[in-house]
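As promised in the previous annual report, we have extended the structural survey to additional targets. Below is the entry for DUF3606 domain-containing protein.
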Amino acid sequence: MFRSAARPDDKDARGPQDRARIALGEDYEVDYWTGKFGVSKETLEAAVKAVGNGADAVEQHLKG
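The corresponding structure token record, generated without further manual editing, is:
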């Protein structure tokens, strides 16, 4: 079946609504970011706690 572009309220969407921010309160976003960065949920949470929820800052933090 062909899927059209996801609606803004479509929780089945695989990526986050705002790719610049990490929303730890949404399971689908946690799944996306842990997969993108190759880290556990706990590691992602610790990185967000350390540098805030900006995706670029978290990525740099995780790279060391």
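The chain has three helices and no strands. The helical segments are 27-37, 41-51, 55-63. These points will be discussed at the next consortium meeting with the crystallography subgroup.
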